[in-house]
Design goal:
It is built from five helices and ten strands, in the order αββαββββααββαββ. The longest helix is centred in the C-terminal third of the chain and has 40 residues. The radius of gyration is 42 Å and the shape is flat. Keywords: Ribonucleoprotein, Ribosomal protein.
């Protein structure tokens, strides 16, 4: 009886702990495997309450998705969720050499503001010179390069003038290739197929090893001799096999055939 009472007490305590850990709302039953959603936690504006958080979510997200997302991944409870879509202002594509380009509307932005149960205070933004551990300079360089590539792609788009490759500014790689070609044509540099060049090495039948330019012809002769010898040996082997088969057939034809009349079979 004592053991049974102890087990019931333990089960009751476990149920109480489970109930206390469960969220104060009904959780969704939709399961997601390998999600590819990108949710960004935005830095609050000056004077914003620490119990309010702003997130940038995909356009397909709803309030229940964000609530369950915060609870299951970060164990963060929220009391309310507000959402709105921030429409971007129309923009005009710029075309070099022309007055204006085509008008378009950039992709909209969906934001959600939640009220947190526990407040969260953002840390102070580090100074730019203190961002070395996060590779801030590399990040800025990548962003600038990406913006430059996008601008070039827009300039070379179907709505812009198509330039020939010779009219485009030469890249660093093309300048290096042009310099190497000039040195080769002027004779200042010799062509080598590879970083170390190519040296042909071949051993002929006399046992001598030839290499380089002088040994090229002898190596070719040695290789042709090997091919001819292999072909001759193959032909001789085939002829010998054919002769052996023919001889065996002739011997079988010359043997007398004895008949066994008792069984009616040939022996």
């Amino acid at each position: 009886m004592a053991a049974r009472a102890a087990s019931e007490a333990v089960s009751t305590a476990a149920e109480r702990v489970a109930v206390s850990k469960s969220p104060p709302f009904r959780r969704g039953g939709k399961k997601l495997y390998l999600p590819n959603h990108v949710v960004s936690f935005l830095r609050p504006k000056p004077g914003q309450s620490p119990t309010t958080a702003t997130f940038e979510v995909p356009l397909t997200f709803n309030k229940f998705d964000l609530r369950d997302y915060l609870y299951h991944l970060y164990n963060v409870e929220v009391t309310s969720v507000r959402s709105f879509i921030n429409q971007k202002m129309p923009a005009q594509r710029t075309i070099p050499g022309k007055f204006g380009g085509q008008w378009y509307r950039p992709r909209a932005q969906k934001l959600m503001i939640v009220d947190l149960v526990k407040p969260f205070v953002w840390p102070e933004r580090p100074a730019e010179e203190d961002m070395t551990p996060w590779d801030h300079k590399l990040f800025v360089a990548v962003e600038e390069g990406h913006s430059k590539e996008v601008a070039q792609a827009e300039a070379m788009g179907s709505w812009g003038p198509q330039k020939m490759r010779t009219d485009q500014p030469a890249t660093r790689e093309r300048k290096e290739l042009r310099k190497m070609a000039t040195q080769l044509l002027s004779g200042k540099q010799q062509w080598t197929p590879g970083p170390r060049g190519y040296v042909e090495v071949e051993t002929n039948y006399s046992g001598h090893t030839t290499s380089g330019e002088d040994g090229g012809s002898s190596a070719a002769v040695g290789l042709s001799d090997k091919v001819e010898t292999a072909q001759t040996e193959t032909a001789q082997a085939v002829e010998a096999k054919v002769d052996a088969v023919s001889k065996r057939a002739e011997e079988q034809a010359k043997k007398p055939v004895a008949e066994n009349f008792s069984h009616g079979q040939k022996i």
